[in-house]
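The methods section describes the discrete structure representation at length, but only in general terms. An entry of this sort, consisting of the sequence and the corresponding backbone structure tokens, reads as follows:
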Amino acid sequence: MAEADLAAQPRRRWVQCASPKGLHRVAYLEWGDARSPDVLVCVHGLTRTGRDFDELARALCGRFRVVCPDVAGRGASEWLPDPMLYVVPQYAADMVTLIARLDVESVSWVGTSLGGLVGMALAAQAGAPIRRMVLNDVGPVITKASLDRIASYVGKAPAFASVEEADRYIRTISAPFGPHSDAQWRFLTETWLRRNDDGTWRAHYDPRIGEPRLVPDNDIELWSFYDAVRCPTLLMRGELSDLLTRETAAEMAKRGPRAKMVEIRGVGHAPTLLQPDQIAVVRDFLLQGT
């Protein structure tokens, strides 16, 4: 196999991270030249995995070393012993450890939903390692309505007798992702599933991830973090998003890093970055910084 073909194949790796309750391993996929100092870290949403970025990674691994972690409690990463640790500060600390493992001074960042919150928390810190950031349908105001919707299914998925049954379920709870081909829906389903010992299928994540007060009494506001971000920032917003309002997006263009905003038509929360036009938006923004 040619060197270029090898670079386009993901490599599964792990890094050991610490929490107040001990050590845990975080899994990640690495695409592209393992020696490249140009690193792009892609972090998924609340109930997804790093596999969500397969298409984006294939498109960009010729230019970046693309690293797609499974956040603790998801995918191939270990579950945390205390569900109250499933919060952004712990995820951010894990990502600092990951970046140290990658042995680079700075990274570009793509974060979908939860992954964007983790990126924003890191980018707000003095000496932050993020040099360029894409926030995919998330910002400093998270609506209570969207959290109510997400809480209605997080940790509550039943066992499925078949992948086809799970596919129908994913199409229902992920309808805000917008139109996708049957093959894309099957990809989104298969990367979400793990097989039980009895042959049935289940969600890949620790069902306790929603326990740390997923539904507050009001909208969550994090403007102090956003206003501290200084790196160039692209905001992708689903036109129909219930998590990131158009008003919040407009305010994000005026303050903090003054994000450039691109709205994806016909999509809610959140753009999956599987579509060529969405990948092109991310690619063009990231390559402006090279």
